[in-house]
Design brief:
mainly beta; four-stranded antiparallel sheet; 174 residues
Length: 174
């Protein structure tokens, strides 16, 4: 089963269920295949996203009601992860190596395929986004331009970038 603890959602036996503290369980989505399920909560906007086998849905009420999002090039991909910004911007990373960006809380998407060979993890530090995987790139302008930082790394793969409370920046590599 796949769980989204923040909004009490879980996926099992081909369905998405919503459960409440009082023990009420309600089926909210059916027809789910057992592979490539994405169920992710945006802590900034309160929206929940579900993707599976061409289905792309969003809920703005904690998962009780779902809206089908319009087909885009993203809906034909297998989304690995969504990374959210505070103003409704979303980065989507796919298993196929594509990167997409939405400025309207997931309604429309722009393709950032130019970064497809660079990996699949984004982390925001100050006002810069970092794209890490088989290299490291940084943007300070919402993905319009990117600076390749790969040459400064000794290890070929960066898994995570984190900033501590005093301003030091760490990169987890292998």
């Amino acid at each position: 089963a796949t769980y989204s603890d923040v909004h009490n959602l879980f996926v099992t036996n081909g369905k998405v269920y919503h459960f409440s503290i009082d023990g009420t369980v309600q089926e909210v989505i059916s027809g789910v295949t057992n592979s490539d399920i994405l169920l992710q909560y945006n802590t900034f906007t309160g929206a929940v996203f579900f993707m599976n086998a061409g289905q792309f849905k969003r809920s703005t009420d904690g998962g009780l009601a779902w809206q089908d999002l319009p087909p885009t090039p993203l809906t034909s991909k297998h989304v690995r992860k969504l990374t959210f910004e505070s103003a409704g911007q979303i980065w989507a990373n796919t298993y196929e190596g594509n990167i997409f960006f939405s400025e309207d809380n997931g309604v429309t998407w722009a393709d950032f395929t130019m970064l497809s060979s660079m990996g699949d993890f984004f982390s925001k530090v100050d006002d810069a986004w970092f794209n890490a995987g088989c290299g490291l790139q940084r943007t300070n302008d919402a993905g319009i331009s990117w600076t390749d930082l790969t040459g400064s790394l000794k290890a070929p793969v960066v898994y995570r970038i984190q900033k501590d409370g005093i301003g030091n920046l760490y990169a987890l590599t292998c």
